[in-house]
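User: structure tokens for 2-dehydro-3-deoxy-D-gluconate 5-dehydrogenase, please.
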Amino acid sequence: MSLFEMIRLDGRKALVTGAGQGIGRACALELARCGADLVLNDRPGSEELLETVEEIRSLGREGWPVEADVFSSDGPESIVRDAMERAGAIDILISNPAYSVRCGFLDYPLDELDRTIEGTFKSGFRLCQAAARQMVNRGRGGKILLISSVQAEMPFEGCAPYGAAKAALNHLTHSMSVELVSHRINVNAIEPGWIDTPNERRIFSDAVINAAGTDLPWGRLGLPEDIGRAAAFLVSDAAEYITGAILPVDGGFRFKDMRANTQPKVVDPE
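Assistant: Done. Predicted tokens:
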């Protein structure tokens, strides 16, 4: 079987959260291009979600919207239940919830700490648990992919709870891969670097983002499509022997200060 055939996802049913925009949307579209039908989740009242659904359908794939707050007390479990009702199965889960407020460690509010851990780690845990139970009950294996972050490895000022929550997701990825391997459920994670998403555009000005891109090793910020393509590979049969992996997709962002032109000049000995 060719690599192209192995990356095809025909007949697979995927659930993608945060699919209205940014990384979630790009992952959903890439899976649809590979042949998957998709259940797409975003917050209630999301106009972007309906736009993604229409684009999925324009590609000739099924797209079912599920409007629900993944941060709510029964959000993750209700999303999985609704996905099962609409699609009849979940072969693939892309878990993409996250919440972050930038604030220094000394002043970080405890209510925002709780919301960051709840939204970034616990929501992901509960989504994966609910979807994995369905996969185990069905007995046909499956693919679980978590969207982590390079901040799981890189400490950024003002982002301590978010980075800690993403590090917890990385450990969860490893733990799930061990516990679910006997059920032939692959569990992996992607660590995006600095990705040009609508949310980043709300935080930073266009001038800041454009200047930052030229400073990165690859010469630009990442695009949501960069993450979508990596996701499509990891949930395909081409990655059947990969589980428990954490894949950085960052254009070298983690090592941007390791290049020769960023290092102190060595003084030639006389």
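User: Anything notable?

Assistant: The chain has one domain: 3-251.
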